[in-house]
Design a protein that fits this description.
The complex is a heterodimer. Chain A has one domain: ABC transporter involved in vitamin B12 uptake, BtuC, CATH 1.10.3470. Helices cover 73% and strands 1% of the residues of chain A. Chain A has 13 helices and 2 strands. The longest helix of chain A has 38 residues. The relative contact order of chain B is 0.16. Chain B is mainly α. Chain B has 3 domains: 189 residues, no CATH class; 75 residues; 89 residues, no CATH class. Chain B is built from 19 helices and no strands. The longest helix of chain B is centred in the middle third of the chain and has 44 residues. The chains are: A mainly alpha, B mainly alpha.
Chain lengths: 336, 443
């Protein structure tokens, strides 16, 4: 019985939260990796673009709520996401037209692109803050829990409760659907394959008649979808605050590079690597050992490897180690 | 630029003008540091925030009086851990030197590091807890050395340079944009450590009331020569007032205002000295054979390498030098504020804004760097008043109660981001070399 309790404990405090957080990171990381692989620059505006998409979603959610439209048990935001995506894509295409296109034609070095993306980051941050303000906002409605901790305890008679939030289930479900669709698109359709070809060797792809304008357009469209959904899911699960989104850029970068930048599948797994290591290393295992070990061997301290304050530092350290020992990432990406 | 600051002095107040001026000077120092790395050598360093914070930490460690009680409580444990770290590093160096590169070597080094960290954690734990328990509302940390705070400017440079040495050894081999990401993340790690190692830095509890190199306002207000000075300066204004009591009250008011202006002027003087010294040094370096070599390395690494220049070593050197200058600026900043708040170090303000200064001012040109520091910092501060004025101007016909207008006025503080972003984008597009582009005269 104690063993089952221990498993439930880990499920509740490590596995499910890490899976959710990992999914949110994974979507962002695929976004970074796509931009890197096809448009060839490190996009420092990632976090703020995600917050722009989320902001659009929130505005539509409010609009639907004011109309009285709702999805019942599901959050209204799910209905608003497609509209948010449209706004996000329009914004990205606008930025591409006025900012990035010029440098692409100039064939500027990646560093210059990165600098330009910092300019875009400042502007996007300003736009988001001017429109919706810097405050912390929750836009979740509908049923909050699928299984409540207390109900679970009564149902199974265990000591440990397992709480399952509906946002967690939605996040994981949407991520699986979206990512499988994306991989189907990249590996099976003609456009997807030409994107891969363009990413591998630009000149060769141009020679074989691939239209670069179309590739860029499709890339931004996919990026817009990923950014908005990733951002909105994060906002639903936690809350929306422009500053946190800016900070989330860092673990997202870490995930993309750990997975091997330019490799979407690597980025997907990289998100989970980062999320699990953050949570595994900073969780206090005292209760777990109390269940597993006999009473005489119970630990005195919290049995915490690192304090939770170092959460971010963990993922960055992993990144630094990966960069040192395997600069192409765990799953072969572009060699640096 | 000076005219603009003078205008602020006349229209807003001298106090604001001088505080803008002081921060402009500090920004200029930071920008010079970043400019050395980017403009001279083409190294991209997004870790400026980390070096600034280390400089600030140096200011705390140098100037605060040592907390005797804390040293007694946990000093021994901390020294033990430091000693352990030194031993660990020596052992790893020894292994690296003695054995050939192999899997076993890598794994054994990894084991040493992990077990060392665990050992240090367990041995330092009681000491740290004891230190943090010493009067946590006031101290709860080891304190510093109790030296004048100006020393910390040099020590801050040493700290930042030391960190840059480690980071440079680790990360300089990476390609440009990866170097940017790696340095950004390393600086976040540094901030995380400073924020949460309370025994060293008090963490988010902040350190306040640091010693000053300049006199205190309160002391000045009771000093005779200062009151006489203020009286002399304002004799015209004061003589108009007939009533003696009124005149005394007016004088008191002027003395209070004057004292804070005087203190800021003292800081300005100190900072100006630093800026001028750095400017002379960097200018000399730029036109020296060494500067020529750096430009050669920047423009064509392979060719420079083929000519027998040690690219790796020079990159490391310039990375350390630039970071050390940023460290000086960090210490200056804390000196001016008189407090150390680890929570306030954010990449937006301390990394990206500095980069906007470098790009806008003109990379590779020291005067450009200083100009960038001044212009961008001035706009950063004055963006809110300017945009408020613009909003009011363009919406003059709309009543105050209009929701859109109210919303815009409420979000005035965020227009500075818009201004910075647009400024950066326009400069990048139409003047990619900055306002003052790099000028190389061959003498």
């Amino acid at each position: 019985m104690d063993f089952v309790n221990a498993i439930i404990l880990l499920l509740n405090y490590i596995f499910i939260p890490a899976l959710t957080y990992g999914s949110q990171l994974a979507l962002g990381a695929i976004f970074v990796t796509l931009i890197y692989g096809i448009l060839r620059f490190a996009n420092f505006a990632t976090g703020d673009m995600m917050s722009f998409g989320t902001m659009a979603t929130i505005l539509f959610t409010w609009y639907f709520q004011s109309l009285g439209v709702s999805l019942g048990v599901l959050p209204t935001a799910l209905l608003a996401i497609p509209f948010g995506i449209i706004f996000m894509i329009l914004y990205m295409l606008l930025i591409d037209k006025f900012v990035f296109k010029y440098y692409r034609h100039q064939k500027s070095p990646p560093v210059q692109f990165a600098m330009v993306s910092i300019g875009v980051m400042f502007v996007t941050q300003a736009v988001v803050r001017i429109i919706i303000g810097p405050a912390d906002r929750r836009f979740f409605d509908g049923e909050k829990f699928i299984i409540k901790a207390r109900e679970f305890k009564e149902m199974t008679g265990l000591n440990e409760g397992l709480a399952l939030k509906s946002t967690q289930v939605i996040t994981i479900f949407v991520t699986i659907v979206l990512v499988s669709l994306l991989f189907w698109f990249l590996n099976r359709t003609k456009t997807g394959k030409s994107m891969k070809a363009y990413s591998d060797n630009e000149d060769l792809a141009l020679l074989s008649g691939i239209d670069p304008k179309k590739i860029v357009l499709v890339t931004w469209v996919i990026a817009g979808i990923l950014a908005t959904i990733g951002g909105a899911l994060y906002g639903l699960d936690k809350s929306f605050k422009p500053f946190t989104y800016f900070n989330n850029m860092l673990p997202i970068f870490a995930a993309a590079i750990v997975g091997g930048i330019g490799n979407p599948f690597g980025a997907f797994l990289g998100g989970y690597v980062i999320a699990f290591s953050e949570i595994l290393l900073t969780y206090a295992y005292k209760k777990f050992f109390m269940y597993v070990l006999p009473a005489s061997m119970e630990p005195e301290g919290l049995v915490q490897l690192l304090s939770t304050d170092y959460k971010f530092a963990v993922s960055f350290s992993i990144l630094v180690i990966v960069l040192l020992y395997r600069p192409s990432g765990i799953f072969k990406g572009k060699v640096l | 630029m000076m005219v603009l600051i003078l205008l602020v002095g006349i229209f807003q107040s001298w106090n604001i003008a001088l505080s803008i001026f002081n921060l402009c000077l500090i920004s200029a120092v930071m920008t010079m540091g970043a400019n050395i790395q980017w403009g001279y050598a083409g190294l991209i360093n997004f870790g400026i925030m980390g070096y600034t914070a280390l400089g600030g930490l140096a200011a705390v460690l140098i100037s605060v009086d040592p907390v005797q009680e804390a040293w007694r409580a946990g000093g021994f444990d901390i020294l033990m851990s430091l000693w352990l770290i030194v031993v660990m590093v020596l052992v790893i160096r020894f292994i690296l030197k003695r054995f050939e590169k192999s899997k076993i070597r890598t794994y054994s080094i990894a084991t040493i590091i992990i077990s060392g960290i665990l050992l240090i954690r367990f041995s330092a734990e009681p000491g740290i807890e004891a230190i943090e328990a010493v009067d946590p509302a006031k101290t709860g940390f080891l304190g510093g050395f109790g030296l004048p705070i100006v020393f910390s400017w040099i020590v801050g440079a040493l700290f930042a340079g030391g960190l840059a040495f480690i980071v440079g050894k680790v990360a300089l081999g990476l390609r440009a944009d990866y170097l940017a990401i790696a340095t950004l993340l390393i600086s976040e790690i540094v901030i995380a450590i400073i924020k949460h190692e309370d025994w060293l830095t008090r963490g988010v509890k902040n350190v306040i009331g640091l010693k000053r190199p300049a006199p205190y306002e309160v002391d000045l207000q009771t000093t005779d020569w200062f009151i006489k000075l203020v009286e002399k300066f304002n004799s015209g204004k004061l003589s108009v007032i007939e009533n003696l009591a009124d005149r005394q009250a007016a004088l008191n008011q002027l003395v209070i205002e004057g004292s804070s202006v005087f203190v800021k002027l003292c800081y300005s003087g100190l900072f100006l000295v630093v800026v001028i010294i750095l400017l002379i040094l960097t200018q000399k370096a730029l036109y020296s054979p060494w500067g020529r070599m750096m430009r050669a390395i920047r423009d064509n690494e392979e060719a420079a390498n083929a000519m027998g220049k040690n690219v790796v070593k020079q990159h490391l050197l310039i990375f350390i030098l630039g970071s050390a200058i940023v460290g000086i600026a960090g210490a200056m900043l804390v000196t001016q504020d008189g407090l150390f708040t680890p929570g306030s170090y954010r990449p937006m303000r301390y990394t990206f804004l500095i980069w906007v200064m470098v790009i806008v001012g003109g990379s590779g040109n020291n005067f450009g760097a200083i100009l960038g520091g001044f212009v961008v910092w001035f706009l950063w501060i004055e963006a809110a008043p300017i945009s408020l004025f613009l909003i009011n101007f363009f919406t003059a016909g709309i009543p105050e109660t209009n929701a859109l207008k109210a919303h815009l006025i409420e979000s005035v503080p965020y227009f500075r981001f818009l201004l910075m972003g647009l400024g950066l984008l326009f400069i990048m597009r139409y003047r990619p070399k900055g306002i003052l582009p790099e000028k190389i005269e061959i003498k």
